[in-house]
Amino acid sequence: MPLWLQGTLELGQAAVLSALLVLLPLIGVWFANGFTDRDFTSLARLGGQAWLLIHGVPMSLSFPAGELGEAPASGLLSFFPLGLTLIPFFLSWRAGRRLARASYTDQLWQALLGAMGTYALIGAAAAYFCSTEGVRISVTAGALVPLIAAGAGLIVGARIEAGSWVRLIGMDLTDWIARTSQHSRWAGSYMWAALRAGAVGTLAALGLSSVLLVVALAMNWAEIASVYERLDAGALGGAVLTVVELGLMPNFVVWTLGWASGAGFSLGTGSMISPLETTVGPLPALPVLAALPVGNMEYGYAALLIPVMAGILAGWWFLREGENHFDEWLSIKIRARWFTAPVSTLVLGVIVGLVSGLLAAGAAWLALGSLGIGRFVSLGSDPLCLGLWVAAEVGIGVVLGYAVGPWLEREPKPDA
Predict the structure, then answer these.
(1) Over the stretch 365-407, which tens digit does the pLDDT of each residue have?
(2) What is d(CA 54, CA 49) in angstroms, rounded to the nearest whole number?
(3) Which residues form the domain of 90?
(4) What is the distance between the alpha carbons of residues 58 and 78, in angstroms, rounded to a whole number?
(5) Are 261 and 390 in contact (CB under 8 A)?
(6) N or C terminus of the chain with fewer C-beta within 10 Å?
(7) Are residues 51 and 14 part of one domain?
(8) Which InterPro entries does UniProt cross-reference here (predicted)?
(9) What CA–CA distances, in Å, run from 142 to 17, 123, 265, 294?
(10) Hey, CA dihedral for 7, 10, 11, 13, is it positive or negative?
(11) Tell me, what DSSP letter sits at residue 105?
């Protein structure tokens, strides 16, 4: 089988499977009379719109006069359910592994080109046939935006199967690095270790934020169950609603990091939820929102320690990596250790903090969304604000973690 055709089949299969996983719950609700005003054709369009939405494709909504108010309403729906995006990502990841096994190093591009072209055509077709008077979808966006999740899955899967970038792209970066000067290699090793430490800081902050989110859900479980009871959506409707909430959990984790960092997050125009300020307007009847922090939070400021703790872990990780060549170079140039040690540590904190802040801002941008109508045109944390807060707090933690790391690394004295 030609490689371009195999790529077409592999990623076409991933698109069909992901569409079925989105459409089957809607069909179940339809058979349970949950969509009394829809025929099967309009239900299929709704499924296609949901498939495009989990890929991050924005949609223009419009409502005639009297449907939502006296005047016509319109807006851009651009909410990205990060958890549900894992469905096409992992299906594409599987396809990437299979294509890497079937291709030689200099032929993989043929399979990837066929796969990505097929996915773009499917996305464009979905955007064209699923557009209605009330929901307008750009065919160009439908073709290009789904390639982000699918392309990332393809590349990650192919890289894992290939085992190295050499086999994947046919270029040996190790030989190129070996031909550079020793100073360039030291500088590259230092920056690469600092970049990875920044990633460690962001991942640790998100991990600790997810723990905080789980604790908040557990402490407010009774209120969440009460909202489910008031909705009275039935077993199938409640299951679909729970799946939607699980798909939004990565978004909620990023919002929790926004709250813990002090940057806060918004649930609509004029609202702000943070340890420093809490202003919330009317909210939709989504059970998980019952876990929002409200009232007097005397210990809310303690949450600001989460990014600092993540920075401590990042600084300790960098110490264990042993790639602080800037400190070594500075010690050679300036013999005063009382000066070089604090300066190199502060520079490390600035670099790692900036990397963590940029990654956190990127996560906030992905988790940011808009329902397009009413006051819910701003959902999530401001990326710039969150990035600045995380950069400052992680940077402080890196300085502390790198400073106390040597004491943590000391081996216990053997018993006499």
Answers:
(1) 999 888 877 777 888 899 999 999 999 999 999 999 998 877 7
(2) 9
(3) 3-176
(4) 5
(5) yes
(6) C
(7) yes
(8) DUF6350
(9) 18, 5, 29, 39
(10) positive
(11) G
